[in-house]
Amino acid sequence: MNITQMAILTIPFGGEPYALEVPDRNLAEVLSPRPSRAVPDLDVAIEAALDAPIDQPPLEDWVKPGDRVLIVSDDTTRLTPVDRMLPALLRRLRAAGVPDDRIACIMALGTHRYMTEEELRAKAGAAVCEQIRVFNHEWRDPQALVALGASSQGTPLLVNRAVVEADVIIGLGAIVPHHIPGFSGSSKIIQPGVCGDRTTAQTHLLSCEGGGDSYLGIEDNPVRRDMDDMADRVGLRTIFNVVMNDAGGVVGIFFGSMRSTFRAGVELARALYGVAYQEVPDIVLANSYPCDLDFWQSHKSLYPAQRMVKPGGAIIVCTPAPEGVSPVHTELLDFTAWSSQDIKAAYREGRLTNGVACALAIAWAMVREKASIINYSPGITPEEKAKLGHTHAPTLAWAVEEALRRQGPDARLTILTHAPELLPIGPATG
Predict the structure, then answer these.
(1) CATH 3.90.226.30 domain locations along the chain
(2) pLDDT, tens digit, for every residue of 354-378?
(3) What is d(CA 66, CA 138) in angstroms, rounded to the nearest whole number?
(4) Alpha-carbon dihedral sign for residues 375, 379, 380, 382
């Protein structure tokens, strides 16, 4: 009797370790971010970055007491330690003579749901919320937005009024490989962070013109250039970005002028998240950690898998998604199972009007057009999975068995333990 030898693996799922068995003979590789040590003292590292800005004088040397200062922070869907970064920034701004009532912090939601008061206090820190105004980017309110014409790519630029009225803008965020602008961070805090949904729709649609693959890990691309142009137009000159490891620890901190600081952060992010793979797998199991909140976040696990998997292969998406597909863009399930070309045509013809949802649905369709998708998620119903064009998996073990049934008994399977943060580098990508 042949006994199948099984490899027992552990992936992070819903904040807990999750044991997974895969037949030894089918397991190709298990890929994770490179092991890295967080800075030993985060507060000391933050102060050191502020002491030595990249291509820019220290804040105290150029910010004036009469300036209106707006700090633009990423939101609760990101792990950036904003509550540790803001107090240090505030001390520097006060040293420059800027009073608290001329400093504010806006949460760059893009088109995410508004953060609750509790979430705002957790993100910025309770003490900071008592000292300065901390508020949501209200992207649904037309009165909160100002039209600034069109960007270099023809994107209509609608941006939060508070950004337009600020004299000094400082962007806070994290740099990690991202399928739309290549890497997150830098000017992404402006677009889509504090722009209107029409602006975000056009940028997202621009990212779907890359010829069947995403811009994941491509530093210079049309989307990044468009974002940089929009950030220039609203006056973002300074960013304060971190690069984090898979445990949520800060590995590097970068402060200074927008482009130079971003380049420095990208260099570290590429070294940390770029993973070499040795073969093109038939199956990729893409675990969504740490982008677990909803599919609007966990879809980021698709693009590294898309980059790696053989045409006609299978992708297993593994995500808790406690908030379902999206608590905001609820109508997108009406068309997410369509082909990418059909969605594009319907948007161009005005039959679909939510450009942001259309753009992501197009990206999701482009992945399905390369490989079938099996979805294991307790937070997404079987009916919702069908509307995504995915196969419902009642268990992760079932998903692996189904993928092997489709691809054959000798199929090779690669596991991405932290898929949204990985940049595959291998035989298919050079």
Answers:
(1) 6-31+277-425
(2) 888 898 899 999 999 999 999 999 9
(3) 26
(4) positive
Q: Are 310 and 281 in contact (CB under 8 A)?
A: yes
Q: Which of 70, 193, 78, 79 is nearest to 132 (CA)?
A: 70
In degrees and rounded to multiples of 5, residue 229 shows phi and psi of -65, -45
Domain spanning 42-272 has what CATH number?
3.40.50.11440
Own/partner long-range contacts of 7-10 (Cβ < 8 Å, ≥24 apart): 9/415
Round to whole Å and give the CA distance between 279 and 309.
Answer: 9
Q: For 234, phi and psi rounded to 5 degrees?
A: -95, -5
The tens digit of pLDDT for each residue in 412-425 reads 999 999 999 899 99
Query: SS3 for 274?
Result: strand
6-31+277-425 homologous superfamily: LarA, C-terminal domain (3.90.226.30)
How far apart, in whole angstroms, are the C-alpha atoms of residue 341 and residue 164? 37
Q: pLDDT of 46-103, one tens digit each?
A: 999 999 999 999 999 999 999 999 999 998 878 899 999 999 999 999 999 999 999 9
Q: For residue range 175-207, what is the model confidence (pLDDT) as tens digits?
A: 999 988 999 999 999 999 999 988 988 888 888
Determine the average pLDDT of the residues in 280-303: 94
Structure tokens, 288? 């969504």
- Start and end residues for every CATH 3.40.50.11440 domain found in the chain: 42-272
The rounded distance, in Å, linking the Cα atoms of 143 and 141 is 5
